C-alpha cells in the first residue's frame, strides 16, 4: 500500500482513521500527537525541569526520545530516573538499556533501587512474604506498585523536578479506565485524568504525553528508528484481570477501529466532573517517611513494616537507608 500523504511505500495502516503512512510521515504523525497532547493540557512550561521515569521498556524509552526532540523547539530540562526493583534476570538488562539511551541523548540519568530505599529487593520481598501466607507467594505487583509510586515521587523530589513524565499510552489509559469502572473505583478516576491536579506540594505532578499514542505505534516507532528498548515482560506480571481487559479491548479495536480512542474521549469528558469531587483531598504526612498520605502511615511504609516483621521472624537481616 501507498502512503496517504506522499504516495511512497507505506509501513503502517492506521485503521482507526483509514490512512496509510510511510516511515517519514509515520514519525511525524506520532511526534505530532505528543506535541498536541503536551500543548493541549499545558503539561510542560518553558524552562521546567521534567523528570522521565525510564524503565528501559518501549514506552518509557520512546517517551524519552520524543521529549528530547520536543525540547529542541521548546526549551526545558530533562532528567531520567530508573527504578530498580531488584528482579534477577529481568531488571539489570533494562537498567543498562535506560542508561544507554539517556547517554545517547545527553540526558542526566539516576538509578534508585528498592534495596537502597526500601530495604528489600522485590525478589526478596516475594520470598519472605511467600513463606508465611499459607505457603503461597504473595502478589508481587501489590508491593511493587506501591513502592514504585513512592520511590518515583521521592526521586522526582530528590532531583528537583517540576513534573514527572510517565510512559502510559492509549492502551494503558483505556484499560485503566475500564478497570476502575468495573471495580467501582470512581474516586481514582478523578485523580488520574488527562491533566494533572496539584494535590500536595510534596506530590510531584505526573504528566502522560503518550496517552494519545496506541501501543503498537510506540513499538513500531522504536523499531523503525532503531531505538534500543527492552521488550521482555516482567516475570511477576500475571494480573489476570488486566490481561482480560487488554485482550477484550484489542478484540473490540480489531472489530471496531477507534474503540480505544472513543473510550479515552469518554473518560476525558467525565474527568472534569470527577476531579471536582475527588481530586482534592486532605493529606497528612506519614509519621515514618514524611511523604503525603491520607492516613497516619503511608501504604509504602505499611508494606515495609510488614516485610521487616516477617524478615525478623525468619532471622534475616536487612538494610534500610
Summarize the structure.
It contains 12 helices and 9 strands. The protein is of the alpha/beta class and 321 residues long. The strands form 3 sheets. It has a 5-stranded parallel sheet with strand order 5-4-3-6-7, sandwiched between helices. Strands 1-2 form a two-stranded antiparallel sheet.
Tags for this entry?
two-stranded antiparallel sheet; 12 helices; alpha/beta; 321 residues; 5-stranded parallel β-sheet; 49% helix
Describe this structure in words.
Helix 7 crosses helix 11 (259-278). The chain has 321 residues and is of the alpha/beta class. Mean pLDDT is 91; it is low at 131-138. A hairpin with a 4-residue loop joins strand 1 (12-14) and strand 2 (19-21). 34% of the residues are buried. The protein has helices spanning 23-40, 58-70, 91-104, 114-117, 122-130, 140-158, 170-183, 186-189, 215-224, 240-255, 259-278, 299-314, and strands at residues 12-14, 19-21, 49-53, 77-84, 108-113, 163-165, 206-207, 284-285, 292-293.
Amino acid at each position: 500500500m501507498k502512503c496517504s500523504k506522499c504516495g511512497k511505500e507505506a509501513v503502517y495502516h492506521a485503521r482507526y482513521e483509514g490512512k496509510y503512512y510511510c516511515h517519514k510521515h509515520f514519525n511525524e504523525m506520532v511526534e505530532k500527537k505528543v506535541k498536541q497532547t503536551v500543548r493541549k493540557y499545558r503539561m510542560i512550561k518553558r524552562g521546567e525541569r521534567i523528570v522521565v521515569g525510564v524503565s528501559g521498556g518501549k514506552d518509557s524509552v520512546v517517551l524519552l526520545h520524543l521529549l528530547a526532540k520536543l525540547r529542541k523547539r521548546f526549551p526545558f530540562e530533562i532528567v531520567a530516573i530508573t527504578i530498580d526493583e531488584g528482579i534477577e534476570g529481568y531488571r539489570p538488562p533494562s537498567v543498562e538499556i535506560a542508561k544507554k539511551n539517556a547517554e545517547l541523548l545527553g540526558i542526566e540519568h539516576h538509578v534508585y533501587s528498592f534495596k537502597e530505599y526500601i530495604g528489600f529487593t522485590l525478589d526478596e520481598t516475594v520470598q519472605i512474604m511467600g513463606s508465611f501466607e499459607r505457603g503461597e507467594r504473595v502478589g508481587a505487583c501489590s508491593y511493587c506498585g506501591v513502592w514504585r509510586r513512592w520511590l518515583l515521587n521521592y526521586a522526582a523530589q530528590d532531583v528537583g523536578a517540576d513534573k514527572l513524565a510517565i510512559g502510559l499510552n492509549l492502551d494503558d489509559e483505556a484499560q485503566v479506565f475500564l478497570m476502575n469502572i468495573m471495580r467501582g473505583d470512581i474516586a481514582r478516576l478523578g485523580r488520574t485524568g488527562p491533566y494533572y491536579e496539584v494535590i500536595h506540594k510534596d506530590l510531584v505532578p505526573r504528566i502522560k504525553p503518550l496517552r494519545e499514542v496506541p501501543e503498537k505505534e510506540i513499538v513500531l516507532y522504536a523499531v523503525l528508528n532503531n531505538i534500543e528498548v527492552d521488550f521482555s515482560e516482567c516475570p511477576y506480571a500475571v494480573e489476570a484481570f488486566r490481561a482480560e481487559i487488554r485482550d477484550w479491548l484489542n478484540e473490540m479495536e480489531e472489530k471496531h477501529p477507534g474503540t480505544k480512542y472513543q473510550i479515552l474521549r469518554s473518560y476525558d469528558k467525565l474527568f472534569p466532573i470527577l476531579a471536582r469531587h475527588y481530586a482534592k483531598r486532605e493529606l497528612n504526612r506519614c509519621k515514618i517517611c514524611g511523604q503525603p498520605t491520607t492516613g497516619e502511615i503511608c501504604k509504602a511504609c505499611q508494606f515495609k513494616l510488614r516485610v521487616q516483621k516477617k524478615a525478623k521472624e525468619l532471622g534475616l537481616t536487612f538494610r534500610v537507608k
